[in-house]
């Protein structure tokens, strides 16, 4: 307990820009910047290659595309891939999410309104409730939907034939998907964090689409703070553009980018206040850990899911935070980044 928590880290009115969970402002950004073809899509080379082969083979055999599952942290392009596949297969896309499907009737009306070859995208598929998940199994396997009519001994099951659709599922939490669900997908694809070079390329592409003048060194500064995540990169680009227009000559130079990030309180590796706060809380309240995720969530005042999906992946990628069987710990590298001393006593 040797490092006091600086007061400026306590309460903040600042909106966190480097958190990859989707926000309202991303919708417009996504639709403007979203690559439409594999050619435009930067990064995820292996996933693109495998998908291209599956799609080509499917077209040759004139079969429906098999069900596909994308998993990995938020903001890496799972929805974008579903759009690209739809475009390249010349099909139509319907988008929903696990929590949006509350009743079996919601699923029935979605599925019965599909046409042959359509693609149904279910985001956050790990959050489907069990009844809906079980109703999806025959739909995925046999293009069949079972409706139970009536109750008790006189109940009857009606079998509805469905069009030959493709389900694309996306999840940030592959571990929460049940085995029967996972095994019904023909292809599972993990999306990895992007390299800094790839993120820089994405920033330059986005800047050119949005007609934002950006120098290479300026793009590089933003790329290095983007947590290897295109959604974060595009969001930061927009914020830095605002700063460049108000405080600079409208051009994103290295100096302007650095100044903007300083004002946003994003450090040189892309950590924001809340990331630092998580590390500090573990150090100061729990002596560096281990601390269970529920206790930690209560201590930082955020939800457990948000910590696991949004904050932890990058802190762990940096090697600042580790998961142990007894809970989360801050590593010596995490202490060093905060300028704190790891005191094992
Ligand atoms: N915008 C967001 N993600 C992208 C990607 N992977 N390639 C190109 N532009 C993008």
Write a structural description:
This protein is an alpha/beta fold. The chain folds into 3 domains: 44-190, P-loop containing nucleotide triphosphate hydrolases (Rossmann fold), CATH 3.40.50; 196-263, Helicase, Ruva Protein, domain 3, CATH 1.10.8; 272-338, Winged helix-like DNA-binding domain superfamily/Winged helix DNA-binding domain (Arc Repressor Mutant, subunit A, Orthogonal Bundle), CATH 1.10.10.10. It contains 14 helices and 9 strands. The strands form 3 sheets. It has a 5-stranded parallel sheet with strand order 2-3-6-1-7, with helices on one face. Helix 7 (196-209) crosses helix 9 and helix 9 (230-247) crosses helix 10 (254-263). The protein starts with 23 loop residues before the first helix and ends in an 8-residue tail after the last helix. 35% of the residues are buried. The model is unreliable at 1-14 (pLDDT under 50). The structure holds adenine (ADE). Residues 33, 35, 40-43, 77, 80, 202, 205, 230 line the site of adenine (ADE).
CATH architectural label of the largest domain: 3-Layer(aba) Sandwich
Task: Indicate the multimeric state.
Answer: single chain
Strand content: 5-15%
Shape: globular
Count of domain modules: 3
Number of strands: 9
Helix content: 40-55%
Q: What is the chain-wise order of helices and strands? A: HHEHEHEHEEEHEHHHHHHHEEH
Query: What is the CA-based Rg, rounded?
Result: 23 Å
List unreliable stretches of 5+ residues.
1-14
Q: Which CATH top level class of the largest domain fits?
A: Alpha Beta
């Amino acid at each position: 307990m040797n490092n006091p928590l600086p007061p400026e880290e306590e309460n903040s009115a600042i909106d966190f820009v480097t958190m990859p969970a989707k926000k309202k402002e991303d919708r417009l950004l996504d639709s403007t910047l979203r690559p439409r073809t594999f050619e435009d899509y930067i990064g995820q080379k292996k996933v693109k290659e495998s998908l291209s082969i599956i799609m080509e083979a499917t077209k040759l055999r004139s079969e429906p595309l098999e069900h596909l599952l994308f998993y990995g942290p938020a903001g890496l392009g799972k929805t974008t891939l579903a759009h690209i596949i739809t475009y390249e297969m010349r099909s139509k896309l319907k988008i929903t999410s696990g929590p949006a499907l509350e009743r079996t009737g919601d699923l029935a009306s979605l599925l019965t309104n599909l046409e042959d070859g359509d693609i149904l995208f279910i985001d956050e598929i790990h959050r489907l409730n069990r009844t809906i998940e079980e109703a999806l199994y025959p739909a995925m396997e046999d293009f069949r939907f079972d409706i139970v009519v009536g109750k008790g001994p006189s109940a009857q099951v009606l079998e509805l034939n469905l069009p030959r659709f493709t389900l694309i599922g996306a999840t940030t939490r592959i571990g929460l998907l049940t085995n029967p669900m996972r095994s019904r997908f023909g292809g599972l694809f993990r999306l990895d964090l992007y390299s800094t070079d790839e993120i820089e390329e994405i920033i330059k592409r986005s800047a050119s689409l949005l007609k934002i003048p950006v120098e290479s060194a300026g793009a590089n500064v933003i790329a290095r703070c983007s947590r290897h995540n295109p959604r974060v990169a595009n969001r930061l680009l927009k914020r830095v553009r605002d700063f460049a227009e108000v405080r600079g000559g409208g051009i994103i130079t290295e100096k302007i980018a650095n100044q903007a990030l300083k004002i946003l309180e994003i450090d040189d590796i892309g950590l924001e206040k809340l990331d630092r706060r998580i590390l500090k809380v573990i150090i100061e309240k729990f002596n560096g850990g281990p601390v269970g995720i529920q206790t930690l969530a209560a201590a930082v005042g955020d939800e457990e899911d948000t910590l696991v999906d949004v904050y932890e992946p990058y802190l762990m990628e940096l090697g600042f935070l580790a998961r142990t069987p007894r809970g989360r710990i801050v590593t010596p590298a995490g202490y060093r980044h905060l300028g704190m001393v790891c005191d094992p006593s």
